[in-house]
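User: Sequence recovery, please. Input:
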């Protein structure tokens, strides 16, 4: 078997497993006002590398403690240290950028994709945060393949979750329901709230 065929087979197997096991958000495509679409487009447009910046030493130390604790908890799912740290740094950056708690975002990722970068749901949602392809057309450049890029996927997911939180006036239960396409039903929000306990830096 050639190296190219072996690589293609491996990607196919990964895709098949991911497709079967992804929980899969099913965000519903809704009409967006021009101002909302422009704001969301601007929010996903700047993909500068996530470089944490801190005003005080205490803030930096708190971040480093968080990074160390989350790295230990994520290790069983992401054994490679450098990949794990890069992922967590990006989650922290994108979460904070949109006023979200990293623990909530990590819990959503756990429920949505099980931390699988190439997860694809039955509904067609993609990547870590299971972003539906229509978002790439509505607020991105239309390139659905970019939703498998780590920072792009996390950026889209955090922007979308923030959008739903704003619509629901901060109600996490209802916003999570919108994210999953199951607004008003308890199963999905409760799964995320349960998973969040694992990613709370105060838990042991």
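Assistant: Recovered sequence (204 residues):
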């Amino acid at each position: 078997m050639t190296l190219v065929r072996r690589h293609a087979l491996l990607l196919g197997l990964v895709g098949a497993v991911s497709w079967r096991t992804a929980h899969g958000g099913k965000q519903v495509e809704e009409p967006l006002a021009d101002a909302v679409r422009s704001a969301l487009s601007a929010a996903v447009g700047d993909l500068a590398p996530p470089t944490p910046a801190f005003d005080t030493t205490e803030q930096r130390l708190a971040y480093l403690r968080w990074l160390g604790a989350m790295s230990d908890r994520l290790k069983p799912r992401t054994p490679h240290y450098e990949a794990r740290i890069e992922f967590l740094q990006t989650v922290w950056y994108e979460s904070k950028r949109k006023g979200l708690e990293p623990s909530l975002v990590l819990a959503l990722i756990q429920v949505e994709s099980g931390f699988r970068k190439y997860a694809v749901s039955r509904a067609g949602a993609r990547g870590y945060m299971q972003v539906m392809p229509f978002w790439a057309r509505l607020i991105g450049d239309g390139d659905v393949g970019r939703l498998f890029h780590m920072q792009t996927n996390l950026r889209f997911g955090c922007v979308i979750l923030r959008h739903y939180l704003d619509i629901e006036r901060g109600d996490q239960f209802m916003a999570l329901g919108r994210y999953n396409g199951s607004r008003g039903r308890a199963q999905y929000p409760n799964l995320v709230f349960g998973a969040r306990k694992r990613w709370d830096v105060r838990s042991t």
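The domain at 3-199 is CATH 1.10.530 (Lysozyme).
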